[in-house]
Amino acid sequence: MERSSKFCLFAAILLLNIGLSAQIVNCNPNEDFWIQIELPDGVEKVGCMTENTETNQMILATEMGLFSSDDNCETMIYANELSEGCWDIKYNDGYIYAITSNGRFCYKAVGSDWSFCDVPDAESCRCIFCASNGDVFLGAWNGIFKSIDNGKTWTHVYKTSATCLSKCLLESDKVILAGVVDFFESGRILRSVDGGDTWESVVNAPSNAIVRNSKGELFAGHYFAGMYDDNLSFSKSVDNGMTWEEVSESYPDVGSMVIDGDDVIYSSDSYKKSIYRTTDGGKSYQCIYDDNKLNSEIKLYISESGYLYAYFDETLLRSKEPLKTPAVISVPKEYCGNELVVYPNPAQGHVKIETGDISFIEVYSIRGQLVDKIDVNADVADIDMSGYDGGVYVFKVHANGKIYFSRTVKLNSGN
Questions:
Q1: Less packed terminus of the chain by CB within 10 Å, N or C?
Q2: DSSP letters of 121-140?
Q3: Which residues fall within 8 angstroms of residue 406, CB to CB, at 6 or more apart?
Q4: What is the C-alpha to C-alpha distance for residues 149 and 131, in angstroms, rounded to an integer?
């Protein structure tokens, strides 16, 4: 009887929040921001997407199998049969991990066949997270599972009731955070400081998404504010997830959330087909997509080349232009620093690089081919990219006795 009452309250607040959220934002759905991508023949829906970060090849999971794209989804090629469809898919260090539409986990090394793996005790896995050390985590209806051998064996590291769904995981300075949704009891944010072996609850509010900006600040998107103890709508942490404070009490319910290199946060409404953008950490926001239809989740993804994707039902959207991506690549970490300034990014023509005592710069394609080598011998370099093909390039900057890396997006001249 108690659960029935809570479910009724859940449904009532759902209806109330849908009505309120629709009135809060002055939407501008016709903004010149998106293009719609045509799906391959026979494909009715993109279930999830990821990217081979070594080649910048997009990988899309559909009900017909996997498709790949080398041109920001302008064209797609059938890549691999995985006919069950997918809840989630991730690429990490030469492996592709997937959760099929019936909750099964599978994995493959690039170029090999799929292997299906039983995850003992797991009930309907829904999300995948790959830590920087190679550990793989699964979020399921009954907790969080961890693998240290690329998905071959699993440990149930956090247990919940079968009504709980671990929706998102994020790593921040060796701390792992997880957002958990429980439709009957509570939602929460979990925090682990030992690589995901043990967890503590730090917020009692359901969280579908967590992102980290360039300053190390964390932002969590919640929903159904007022139903749970901490009464949060959109919250922020400045101490690596130990404590959280509310940024906005009226931010639309968050279903999916991503952040770009300019710390602009994009989020989708968890129950409406709407997408929002905030440039001030959630204090204010603008609607950049809305078609006034309910009960469909929009998923968001930002690619390495800087494009924002949104997909739901039979629709795949992509931003017309790349968003700014983080300028400095930590490869290797000991040779990177904040003193390197690269602008504009993205660029069509000239790019300036500032640091100090630059001896020379090597320009590489995203696939590792040396495109150009430029002698500088100055504090500022002016690189003419107007003759380069559109795409992602890496600058290897030799300066100050160190090596710096910067990833830059070159726009086609017509964009």
A1: N
A2: T--SEEEEEE-TTS-EEEEE
A3: 327, 328, 329, 340, 342, 345, 353, 394, 395, 397
A4: 12
Residue with tokens 């007022």: 226
* Whole-angstrom distance, CA of residue 57 vs CA of residue 44: 21
Backbone angle region of 376, left / alpha / beta, with phi > 0 → left and psi within -120 to 50 → alpha: alpha
What is the rounded (10 degree) CA torsion for 22, 26, 32, 38?
0
Q: Phi then psi for 119, rounded to 5 degrees? A: -105, 100
Name the DSSP letter for residue 335. Answer: G
Q: How far is 372 from 369, CA to CA, in rounded Å?
A: 9
Instruction: Give yes or no for a contact between 61 and 98, defined as CB atoms under 8 angstroms apart.
Output: yes
Query: Rounded to an integer, what distance in angstroms lies between the CA atom of residue 313 and that of residue 44?
Result: 7
- The span from the CA of 209 to the CA of 86, in Å, is 19
pLDDT digits (tens, 9 = 90+) for 209-251: 899 987 889 999 887 654 544 556 789 999 999 999 988 877 8
Q: Under a CB-based contact definition with an 8 Å cutoff, are residues 363 and 393 in contact?
A: yes
Residues forming beta bridges with residue 375, ordered by sequence position? 360
> Whose structure tokens read 């997270």?
129
pLDDT, tens digit (0-9, with 9 covering 90-100), for 136-179 = 999 888 889 999 998 889 999 998 875 556 678 888 878 999 98
